[in-house]
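Hey, resending since the last one bounced:
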Amino acid sequence: MPRSSNLVASRRRRRKILQQAKGYWGKRKNVYTVAINAVEKGLLYSYRDRRVRKREFRKLWIARINAAARLNGTTYGKLIHALKVNQIELNRKMLAEMAVHDPAAFSEVVKKAAS
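The structure tokens again:
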């Protein structure tokens, strides 16, 4: 009995990898064995960096809040503590948006927190 190869499935598997490698440079886009490694590495980076992005944004928000807080005569740590004590529930993203786009409102929040 002749050997049977499931050509349809194996071709589909290869095509799926090569589709994911579309746009890569050199042999990474059209040589299957090279493309496998490139695609796997790309998927690892995308998984890792979805988490890194969250860290980076939090760092950015904190830096913006701290800069605006210092313009209002306090520090980031003191401001966050005062917000918690006075039960003002604004997250860092919204505080940073206010600090950049509406400094007057941010100053009001600082005054409320300080009182």
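The chain has one domain: 7-114.

Sorry for the duplicate.
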